[in-house]
Amino acid sequence: MTMIRYGILIVSDSCSSGDRKDLSGPEIKNIITNKSTDIGKLLNGTITCEEIVEDNEYKIMDFLATWCDQNKVDVILTSGGTGFSERDVTPEATKKIIQKEAPCIIFSMFLNSIKWTPMAMLSRAISGIRGKTLIINLPGSHKAVKECLTAVAPAISHAVDLLLNDKSSVIKTHNAVQNFSFKFCHTPASTEMLGLHNVSERSRSSPYPMISVEEAKSIIFKEAYVMNVETINISNALGRVIKNNVYSQCDLPPFRASIKDGYAVIASDRAGKRKVLGGVKAGSTTTILPKLLPGTCIRVNTGAPVPDGANAVVQVEDTKLIETLNSEEVVVDILISPKAEQDIRPIGSDIEKNSLVLSENIKIGAAEIGILAACGCKEIDVYKQPVIGILSTGDELQEVGEPLLPGHVYDSNKLTLMSILEENNFKPLDMGIAQDDEMTIVQTITNALKAVDVLITTGSVSMGDKDMLKPILKHYFGATLHFGRVNMKPGKPTTFATCMLNNKKKYLLCLPGNPVSATVTTHLFVLPLLNKMQGLSSKPIIVQAELTSDYQLDPRPEYARVTLKWSDKIAKAYSTGNQISSKLLSCQNANAFIILPGSTNQKTSLKAGEYVPAMLLGFNQ
Ligand code: AMP
Ligand code: MG
Predict the structure, then answer these.
(1) What is the pTM of this model?
(2) Which residues contact 430 (CB under 8 A, 6 or more apart)?
(3) Does residue 459 have its Cβ closer than 6 Å to ligand 1?
(4) Which domains does the chain have, with CATH numbers?
(5) Is 493 close to ligand 1, i.e. is its CB under 6 Å away?
(6) What is the pLDDT of residues 34-52, one digit of tens each?
């Protein structure tokens, strides 16, 4: 896509004279040229003209008209001179050189600004067209220009295409504007409204009540809906949850099958010599064989049908070859007298036709797939799985593989969480890394929610000035925050929200950024949510485990990572080492979380030898 050429005209007596540093010009420039942000992408620009001019109507007109008429710019953004001061004449100058007005551009900016400052009413800014150039008056304050540009950014590229009569991209940019979330353009929130603008003014205590892990789980369970049903081929059914009871379509075995390689005999003939009438292999029929009479036998392989008339199979080890002709067996000696029905699987002895083989709402594993195949069941009704996205947030994060920049760390959460979900047969989507920038997060979540039913995020939910997820969800997405703090360690700021998008309920589980916290909360909250949605009601297995070391108790119940080993029928819990929430090594080799109670005045520690509940990882019942 061709870049849009922008001209920036700063209108200010004091900046023009050098008495004051111009902050708006660099801010506008940065917004337009920073392609890593969503506004930057929308504005898609390069700066071809820039100037600082005093509040002088003729000089302003001169710059505007010259830039337009010399075809140097597609869009001119002026900043300053739109207020009520005597010297403010930017709108007057603009009005005199434009040929057509474009008032709704200013109206759009106004709608955005008035939501958070009544000062917006005092703007006299205008917008209009001269030739093929769009001119927009922005306010002078560098803080306000971002708000205003955010409001108009989605429509700029299409406006330029229309002015340039660029038929090749006009439909594309039209659709892009149409698809853009209206909420995003005209949100009631702003950085200032969300309380994110000033680190010294951030709240120092969380407004969210602290609830217990059990309460949090039951809220999730209550909110989660069960997905619809689809019919799939059993070869794709691993890990899916069965909708209805399954009944076998056939008997297994469907014929009397030999359990051994040997000879089908009449048991009442007892031990002794037999004439061998022929042989039957697995997969063949017995109809071509001569009828079995007393004193005769027929050679059979394992899995072969037992001929009519035979009521026992004698394994080859219990026979002796007596006579051959042209390499064929003619007579064998049965060494041990057979019992009736020995080494024969009767029809339907493994699975009876029409019998219940799998119950509704169970998860399909390897055995279940085998059973379905054995029963002649090619397709199966299962619950759909939710579409899940995993998003990391944080300015400090980098994708693994890139050279590490100063102050940065590799994003480990995304891959850890995706792997936990994959271990549980879900197929999560990688939603990337969002920088700690309000509009970037808003845009990333907007896009993600269009694609997924459940969005799992990590980071940006604690008490830092860059932890903006909760207010963003409320204000931009109208989300209901069901909880924002859980009485647990690690994982306290875990947040669960739902919102509606295109009449569909969307789930957001926002986990803390520390890798161990994200891992623990995925096991405790994400998996139960997803399981409920895919129709599974199984619960984690909790066993009693003996501590092998002492623990200081935290005021919050703690989910400590351990390796459980069984000795003398007792599960013993071995700590995986330092339990700080940043140290992912503590999750390695962990096969359980022991649940340490919160400390009380009476009890502040637990000693080796005491018992605690331990939640097994990877096992449900
Ligand atoms: P936050 O929850 O955003 O305050 O982050 C808490 C800590 O977790 C910080 O030290 C972050 O650098 C770290 N962190 C956040 N997200 C990730 C991630 N995706 N991978 C690894 N570390 C992370
Ligand atoms: Mg962060």
Answers:
(1) 0.71
(2) 389, 390, 414, 418
(3) yes
(4) 4-185 (3.40.980.10), 210-226+386-533 (3.40.980.10), 229-251+350-383 (3.90.105.10), 257-345 (2.170.190.11), 540-620 (2.40.340.10)
(5) no
(6) 988 888 989 999 999 999 9
